[in-house]
TrEMBL record:
Keywords of the record: Chromosome, Methyltransferase, Transferase
Subcellular location: Chromosome
Region annotated Disordered, chain positions: 59-156
Any one annotated GO CC term: nucleus
SMART domains hit by this protein: PreSET, SET
Name this protein carries in UniProt: Histone-lysine N-methyltransferase SUVR4
Name of the coding gene: LOC103643167
GO molecular function: histone methyltransferase activity; zinc ion binding
Methyltransferase keyword on record: yes
Domain of life: Eukaryota
Main localization of the protein described in the UniProt heading: nucleus
Amino acid sequence: MGSNTERARKALGAMKLIGFSKKQAIPVLKELLKIFNNNWEPIEDESYRALADAILDRQDSKQTPPSQQGTQAAHADLEPLRSTRDDRQQYLSASLDDTCEDDNETPLVKRPRMGTANFRPELQPPQQSSVSTQGALPASPQTSRRQTRSLTVEPHAAGHEYPLAVNDALVVKEPKPEPQIDRAEDFVAGPNATQLNDGSSEQTSGFGARGNIVHQAQSLGRSLQAAAVCKNGVGSTVQNTHETSIVEVDVASSANGEVKMSLKCSLGSSNFSISMEEVFKMVEEKCLHSYKMLPSDLSIGKLLSEVCQSVVQLGTMHSEVNRDSGSLHNEVVVPFVKPISCEAAVGISDDVAGGSSVLESSEPCLQNSLVAWNPELAHCNQKTTHDTTDISKGEERVRIPVVNEFGSETCPPSFYYIPRNLVFQNAYVNISISRICDEDCCADCSGNCLSAPVPCSCARITGGEFSYTLEGLLKTAFLDECTSVNHFLQEHHRFYCPVCPLERSKNEGSPGPCKGHIVRKFIKECWSKCGCGMQCGNRVIQRGITCKLQVFFTREGKGWGVRTVEDLPRGAFVCEYVGEILTSAELHERAIENARNGKHMHQVLLDAGWGSGVVLRDEDACSLDGSFYGNVGRFINHRCYNANLVQIPVEVETPDHHYHHLAFFTNKKVEAFEELTWDYGIDFDDMEGPSKPFRCMCGSRYCRDPNNPRRMGRAAAKRK
Ligand SMILES: C[S@@+](CC[C@H](N)C(=O)[O-])C[C@H]1O[C@@H](n2cnc3c(N)ncnc32)[C@H](O)[C@@H]1O
């Protein structure tokens, strides 16, 4: 603590260190001491941040144009309401004056901490009849701006009303759910929170909050909660002030693994409404003041989002540690509860008309999934070999964690993670240098083909233009065309095999008529026979996954799914669908086997190039099966019509298209924590197959499943 002189010396030393002379600092310090009724704590807090800001505000105010003087005058009116100086104050002023003579001292100053909840004079509670920082220090252009942004914070500002007298809780924008899925938002809050925001209840501290959050008993644990309690000008001479101001940072996880941070500022009886953008901007400005310079791309929003992502990652790691030490259910960090089996009876859909289609599972899985909420009904402790911190086991450039907030298993049933397709047995995939002719590669190129003045021969099959932009995204026109294939099937070319390999594998002697395959646009990437480097912009999918993904257990009964934990722009490559490359006959066998075993189906036809006019041999009619060997793509669930991913065939190392890669790209902007989905192309009306399509839980208003009661009219749902 120390004497007032000592404290003043330190404060001035701290200011000196960041470039403020005593001449500049002393009057402001005096002013603040008056405001805080000689309470040093709010001034010393955060390495004298209040003092530094107040000095800056005062400096700014000197440049305030005359037009803004009226506002200052309004504040000046508050002056008489302020508490009068007592003897102590006078003594302190004298001490300060003394201190002024000594310029040699350089007390230690802590580096200001960024992002820590702290008490701010500007956000000080309206002391009903007395204290106002704004009143004490003339409003500057900056403070005026702040006042405009946080209009109702200052209760006595002339002419200011409280048009949005609402909640005091500042809630960071919550992770966005997948559009059009109605969800009960079950956020599990920190221990201090009770119920936020349905308007019906408030927190213990008197806060309400925006959003739709139902808090439950479990929490992320105290370690994830930071609370800063700052004394707020409590003193005998200040009347009508409340005892403390509390600023809390609460981090809560939702039932489906989303993370929400809420900042709660107890501001007594004041009402105010501000947007998070305003808060972020102000914090950024303050950081700038404190640090004098900031990284140009600093964004408090991003910083907070990073905090949320770290919570998810830490939660995942904790769950793994707990699982290993057998204490999963003793110490709940993220609300992991008892598991379910997600084994399911399966069937194979005969539908190939929608293009690449995943052969689907059936009801039992859904029934199992629905018991996920009831731990007592959970069963099947199937052992898996997954690393929940990274299901790819280091095979990808990024880690892909697994999160399960509902099931007794912390990870999905076993499979081998492979980052690239592998031939199972008989599929004919001939990758050889000699098969790539000169027109199908760019041997003379170097560096980045996208930067060349004239597109090289690798752009030939895409009409002389590359599919990618220099930023590594799909070009809009190309993406629009690929997406419209899924949306308006009838308008796109459908190819009918003279003898369909799929039908032939079902009935060799008398194959049924081909149901049709959609002719899709291909991406063609440069490859090893090209002269360009691996960083060439026309090599996107072959560089592998770069975005941050997470495998999570869905709440809607779809089993496991995939979500992004960062915002993704439109046209971004997400991942490939990887699996064993099967022939039609092998595919058929697998489907029957899967149907017997009752598993999710993970098979996708690679039929985008079947319309080449040649009658395909069985070994040329390839498909991918991710059941036993696959990558993260095997977890991506189906959504009717308005999925956020589009599947695009990609030619990399073989020029003929019976074998190709299947890559997923975002077809809209996707926000962090949205589930990633693609339209499997299932015809839910097709009941001919050995088993029936799964009951669709996609939540899309355009759901095609006739058994889905929530879908819109059949006509709307049916594809054009
Ligand atoms: C490629 S897998 C997707 C990952 C799967 N959810 C899992 O847990 O392994 C396809 C299977 O997921 C389930 N599924 C995918 N999308 C679904 C949806 N919209 N509604 C219900 N189940 C779905 C079905 O069981 C389907 O056979």
